[in-house]
Design goal:
six-stranded parallel β-sheet; two-stranded antiparallel sheet; hydrolase; hydrolase activity; alpha/beta; 8 strands; FSH-like_dom
C-alpha cells in the first residue's frame, strides 16, 4: 500500500513524517509513505519552532475558493507525476486540502474514479469556502462554530510558547470550551449541512480527532461528508498526534482496517 501524506499548515513533510513515525512503525513494510511539502513557505504553526527547525510550508494561505483550487492543481500535478497512490494520509490543513479536493472531484468529475482508494484524516475538516462554492448552504451557526473553533485553536496552541516542561497545554480548559460542548448538536452532522448523497466521498475513510481539540466538530463534519465505509475515533488529546503507545497501536489498527476495507470492496466488485 502506497500512501501520499500531507502535513499541517506551518509544518512540513519532514515534520509530519516525524509526527507519524510512532504508529507507522507498527505497519507492515509493504506500506510506504510519500510526504509532500506545500508549495508555499509559511510561518511556523504555534509551538512548532520550539521542536522543529525550518523550513515550514502551507498548501494555501487564502480562504478564497480560487486560491484553494490552485492547491488542487498542485496536488493533481504531483499525483500525475509521482502516482499512482493507494491511499492518502493527512493532518490538519492537509486534511482540508484532500477533503475539498475529493469533494470537488466527486461533484465536478463523477465519471472519473477518485485518485485514492482510501483516506486517513487526522484532526481534519472540510473547507467551508469550497462547500459554499459548490452550492451547499452553510447555516449561520455553522459559520460561528467554524470561526470560534479556529480562534480557540490558535489561543490554545499559542499556550505552548509559554508552557513549562510537563504542562498539558491541551488541558481540561480546552475540553470545556463552548465549541466542545454545544448543546443539541447532531454529532452525525454537526454543521447541519444538506449534502446530496451522490456528492459524498465513497471510499473507505478513517477520521481521528482529539477530545481537547477546539476543531473537534470540524473533524466530525468532515466525517459526515464520507458515505463509504468509515471509522471515527477520538484519541483523547488535542490538535496533535499523541505518541502514547496505546494511541499509536489504535491508529495503526485503523490504517490496517481502512486498507482491508479497500480489498473487501474490490472483491465485492470482482476486481
Amino acid at each position: 500500500m502506497r500512501f501520499l501524506c500531507l502535513h499541517g499548515k506551518g509544518t512540513s513533510a519532514e515534520i509530519f513524517s516525524i509526527q507519524s513515525a510512532t504508529f507507522r512503525r507498527l505497519l507492515p513494510p509493504s506500506y510506504t509513505f510519500d510526504f509532500l511539502d506545500g508549495p508555499y513557505t509559511s510561518p511556523p504553526a504555534a509551538g512548532v519552532s520550539l521542536f522543529f527547525n525550518p523550513p515550514y510550508y502551507a498548501y494555501y494561505h487564502s480562504s478564497d475558493p480560487s486560491a484553494i483550487r490552485e492547491s488542487y492543481s498542485y496536488l493533481q500535478e504531483h499525483i500525475d507525476r509521482n502516482g499512482p497512490y493507494d491511499g492518502v494520509m493527512c493532518f490538519s490543513q492537509g486534511c482540508a486540502l484532500v477533503a475539498g479536493f475529493l469533494l470537488d472531484h466527486q461533484v465536478t468529475r463523477p465519471h472519473i474514479p477518485l485518485p485514492f482508494s482510501c483516506a486517513i484524516f487526522i484532526c481534519g475538516g472540510m473547507p467551508l469556502p469550497i462547500i459554499e462554492d459548490l452550492g451547499i448552504e452553510i447555516p449561520s451557526f455553522a459559520r460561528d462554530l467554524e470561526t470560534q473553533s479556529v480562534k480557540e485553536l490558535f489561543a490554545t496552541a499559542n499556550a505552548v510558547e509559554t508552557a513549562k516542561p510537563g504542562d498539558d497545554y491541551w488541558n481540561t480548559k480546552a475540553e470545556k470550551t463552548s465549541i466542545l460542548n454545544v448543546e443539541n448538536v447532531n454529532m452525525e452532522n454537526p454543521y447541519g449541512l444538506q449534502v446530496p448523497e451522490g456528492w459524498k466521498i465513497q471510499i473507505p475513510t478513517v477520521h481521528i480527532y482529539g477530545q481537547k481539540d477546539p476543531r473537534r466538530l470540524a473533524g466530525l463534519n468532515l466525517a459526515s461528508f464520507c458515505a463509504g465505509k468509515k471509522k471515527v475515533w477520538n484519541h483523547g488529546g488535542g490538535h496533535d498526534i499523541p505518541r502514547l503507545s496505546a494511541v499509536s497501536n489504535e491508529i495503526a489498527g485503523l490504517v490496517k482496517w481502512c486498507t482491508s476495507a479497500v480489498g473487501e470492496g474490490r472483491d465485492a466488485e470482482g476486481l
